[in-house]
């Protein structure tokens, strides 16, 4: 199950070396410098070649080893871990390639991490040396007293007196670092050290550790997944064979966090082919400006962004009035029919009339779109494909298999699934009788998705118990996702094993915990919180506590004799209950995506008799979904209506 694309690549070191070989003078990494006279503007992209990046990773890696041996550990033990704390930028990628060249281990922190999670990750992975953006240097210094192994911080930005918003910033940071017993240097200094103390490369093997990739921690303490070089290398090769016939002329815009396996996997594929990576400025509000400047040919994103693009395009085309709306509706109708008939995403007439202009939203050159992290609705997938005149491939994976388990293949005209299993992996479905999912189900088998093969990680750092839960004795990774193998042989994800689901923006949600928080509200007797991987918000069905609810609701609407049924149907009462619930949500420290955005009040309690409770009084979620399907759909339609109205108002 080791896929071969003819490159012979087995590690990320060999991956870059191959890109360097096929395109030494081609564009490798690009970024947009800030305009020297107007900091609110950016200059055109500035590029470094593969040869230049190859030299810089050698210099930085050599300097890194010299610093480590002179300030941390004189033995020079291989395989030590380098921490990364920054948004995507060339220096992040150069330091990562240095790790690959000298068999060091990349440990990346999300740029948006709070101090508690950052502290835990640094201590758990025993990081002594970090590279960080200037904005994060001060955060690390604040944490330094509680991260005793931290010895060296390397600023990706120059540490000169003109740096930052205030004069003397570098001097203050240096003094602060000395006071904490930490050596603070900048990236340029490390490269210069490397030129003076040049080291030969120390390439890793295919089974050596590439990165410790920490899960988001949504379900508790973050776990450090140990990902090997072959996991990324073979996963990337399999994906390019199945999906992306990439060439060195291709251009990728890097804005999804490199701390996440999804972006790392795409990055790996681009580099191996000798193609170009342009980094965004890191501001989501400026992303489309960067896209327009870069004009990428490849674009990878998550459902949350694709859904927003879809909403904008639909409102400005098929929902437009007059002649434009008439033309757009006809164009969409014809192209959708062609797509579903297997005739592709292009149309000679309608592309010339309308869709070539729509393509300019994404720079006008994107030939492949990729989506991951959570499912996209078939409506969105199909519309975006015809609107942008390019295929949109959906992938499925998780940190524990280097983000690569399955992908929709080239030429696929049917959406609503996550494609064929990766060429580097194999799949099986394990029965879940307690959830009524069986591999013997007809017409398609269902069960927990288990993956085995070259992409599967080797376990969690310092956590054998969690490792044993994820990996069985035969090497199968138990994903916790419930899937079905469709008659066409494609995989479709339909549920989560432990009642934990992912919203459209990629956030995992544990509904039982949220229900426990809301149950503290005296207005609530029972609550069912629901989320959908195609939606970005939670909704709920609430059974009110009549003793508290009735007098409160009657007073709220000024109707002292109103019935319980009438009050449960009153929109003002619904809004009042949500406001009361928000008090408990805030007190319970729920995140924004964990808060209920719409609800329906019902007078019928959840009981064993009506099939909504188990004998141990646990909620039967699938039965609740079936019973309240109409209400759930209506709530999501309501939320979309509010969002559209707010968008329209913002333009006035």
Automatic annotation (TrEMBL):
Q: Which residues form the AMP-dependent synthetase/ligase domain?
A: 44-461
Q: Which domain of life is it from?
A: Eukaryota
Does Iron-sulfur show up as a keyword for this record?
no
GO cellular component, alphabetical, reads: endoplasmic reticulum; membrane
Alphabetically ordered keywords of this record: ATP-binding, Ligase, Nucleotide-binding
One Pfam entry name: AMP-binding
Record's InterPro entries? AMP-dep_synth/lig_dom (IPR000873), ANL_N_sf (IPR042099), LC-FACS_euk (IPR045311)
Please name the GO terms that the record assigns under molecular function: ATP binding; long-chain fatty acid-CoA ligase activity
Q: Which family does it belong to?
A: Belongs to the ATP-dependent AMP-binding enzyme family.
Designated name of the protein: AMP-dependent synthetase/ligase domain-containing protein
């Amino acid at each position: 199950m080791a896929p071969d694309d003819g490159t012979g690549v087995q590690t990320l070191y060999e991956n870059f070396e191959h890109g360097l070989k096929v395109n030494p003078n081609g564009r490798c990494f690009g970024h947009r410098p800030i305009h020297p006279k107007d900091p609110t503007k950016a200059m055109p992209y500035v590029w470094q070649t593969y040869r230049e990046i190859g030299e810089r990773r050698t210099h930085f890696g050599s300097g890194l080893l010299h610093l480590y041996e002179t300030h941390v550990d004189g033995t020079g033990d291989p395989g030590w871990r380098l921490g990364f704390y920054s948004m995507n930028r060339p220096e992040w990628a150069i330091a990562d390639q240095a790790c690959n060249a000298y068999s060091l281990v990349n440990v990346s922190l999300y740029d948006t991490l709070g101090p508690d999670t950052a502290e835990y990750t640094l201590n758990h992975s025993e990081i002594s040396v970090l590279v960080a953006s200037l904005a994060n240097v001060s955060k690390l210094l604040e944490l330094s007293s509680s991260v005793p192994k931290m010895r060296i911080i390397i600023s990706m930005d120059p540490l000169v007196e003109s740096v930052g918003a205030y004069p003397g910033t570098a001097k203050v940071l240096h003094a602060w670092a000395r006071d904490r017993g930490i050596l603070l240097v900048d990236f340029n200094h490390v490269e210069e050290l490397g030129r003076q103390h040049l080291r030969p490369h120390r390439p890793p093997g295919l089974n050596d550790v590439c990165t410790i990739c920490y899960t988001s921690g949504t379900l508790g303490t973050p776990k450090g997944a140990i990902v090997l070089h072959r996991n990324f290398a073979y996963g990337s090769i399999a994906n390019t064979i199945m999906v992306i016939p990439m060439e060195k002329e291709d251009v990728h815009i890097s804005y999804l966090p490199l701390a996440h396996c999804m972006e790392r996997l795409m990055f790996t594929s681009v580099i191996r082919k000798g193609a170009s990576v342009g980094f965004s400025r890191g501001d989501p509000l400026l992303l489309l400006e960067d896209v327009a400047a870069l004009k990428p040919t490849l674009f990878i994103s998550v459902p949350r962004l694709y859904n927003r693009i879809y909403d904008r395009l639909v409102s400005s085309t098929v929902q437009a009035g007059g002649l434009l709306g008439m033309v757009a509706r006809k164009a969409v109708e014809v192209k959708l029919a062609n797509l579903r008939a297997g005739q592709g995403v292009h149309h000679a007439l309608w592309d010339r009339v309308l869709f070539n202009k729509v393509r300019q939203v994404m720079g006008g050159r994107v030939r492949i779109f990729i989506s991951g992290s959570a499912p996209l609705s078939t409506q969105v997938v199909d519309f975006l494909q015809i609107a942008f005149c390019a295929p949109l491939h959906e992938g499925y994976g998780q940190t524990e298999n280097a983000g690569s388990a399955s992908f929709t293949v080239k030429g696929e005209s049917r959406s609503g699934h996550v494609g064929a299993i990766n060429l580097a992996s194999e799949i099986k479905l394990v029965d879940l009788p307690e959830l009524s999912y069986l591999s013997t189900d007809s017409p398609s088998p269902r069960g927990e998705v288990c993956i085995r093969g070259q992409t599967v990680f080797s376990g969690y750092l310092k956590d054998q118990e969690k490792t044993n839960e994820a990996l069985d004795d035969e090497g199968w990774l138990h994903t916790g996702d419930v899937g079905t193998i469709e008659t066409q042989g494609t995989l479709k994800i339909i549920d989560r094993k432990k009642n934990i689901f992912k919203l459209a923006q990629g956030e995992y949600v544990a509904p039982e915990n949220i229900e426990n928080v809301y149950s503290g509200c005296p207005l609530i007797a029972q609550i069912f919180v629901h989320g959908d991987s195609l939606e970005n918000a939670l909704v709920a069905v609430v059974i009110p506590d009549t003793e508290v609810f009735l007098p409160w609701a009657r007073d709220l609407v000024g109707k002292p004799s109103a019935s319980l049924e009438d009050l449960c149907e009153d929109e003002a009462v619904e809004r009042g209950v949500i406001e009361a619930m928000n008090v408990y949500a805030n007190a319970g420290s729920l995140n924004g995506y964990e808060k209920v955005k719409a609800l329906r009040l019902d007078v019928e309690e959840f009981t064993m008799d009506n099939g909504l409770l188990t004998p141990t009084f646990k909620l039967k979620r699938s039965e609740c979904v079936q019973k309240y399907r109409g209400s759930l759909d209506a709530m999501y339609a309501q939320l979309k209506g509010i969002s559209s109205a707010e968008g329209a108002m913002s333009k006035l």
